[in-house]
Amino acid sequence: QLQLVESGGGLVQPGGSLRLSCEASGFTSDNYAIGWFRQAPGKEREGFACIVYNDGTTWYTDPVKGRFALSRDNAKHVVHLQLNSLKPEDTAVYSCAAGWPPPCERTPYSYWGQGTQVTVSS
């Protein structure tokens, strides 16, 4: 059974950093993409970053480009999302999802994690 589990959320001050992780289990190959989504209170869910697991190709939206960075741990089927220079408007529930085929910004995501809260506040 395919499962995704996020971790690493929390409370951070503006300008601070967090690292989120998405651990994928039950995958029998490296042919999948991991997308990251976030949903702030009263707003629609938005996709903002993704990575194609087998070749490391990444994509970011403009609001997070240069501040957020994806990486992967090939041995463990874990994708890390480094959040830097965080702003109050980054406050949201962050979720990862898995799907195929690429490009990952258009991948149909079928498997979802439970989400982790990120709060940016002084």
Structure description:
The protein has about 120 residues and is mainly beta. It has no helices and 11 strands. Strands 2, 4, 5, 6, 9, 10 and 11 form a 7-stranded mixed β-sheet that branches. Strands 1-3-8-7 form a 4-stranded antiparallel β-sheet, with no helix packed on it. The protein is globular, with a radius of gyration of 13 Å.
Secondary structure blueprint with pairings:
Layout: E1 3-7, E2 10-12, E3 18-25, E4 33-39, E5 46-52, E6 58-60, E7 68-73, E8 78-83, E9 92-99, E10 109-112, E11 116-120
Parallel strand pairs: 2-11
Antiparallel strand pairs: 1-3, 3-8, 4-5, 4-9, 5-6, 7-8, 9-10, 9-11
Comma- or semicolon-separated keywords:
122 residues, mainly beta, seven-stranded mixed beta sheet, four-stranded antiparallel beta sheet, 11 strands, 51% strand
Radius of gyration: 13 Å
Annotation, overall tally of beta strands: 11
Output the number of helix runs.
0
Q: Give the percentage of residues in beta strands.
A: over 45%
Based on secondary structure, the structural category is mainly beta
Low-confidence stretches at least 5 residues in length (pLDDT < 50)? none
Silhouette:
globular
Please sum up the structure shown:
By secondary structure, the chain is mainly β.
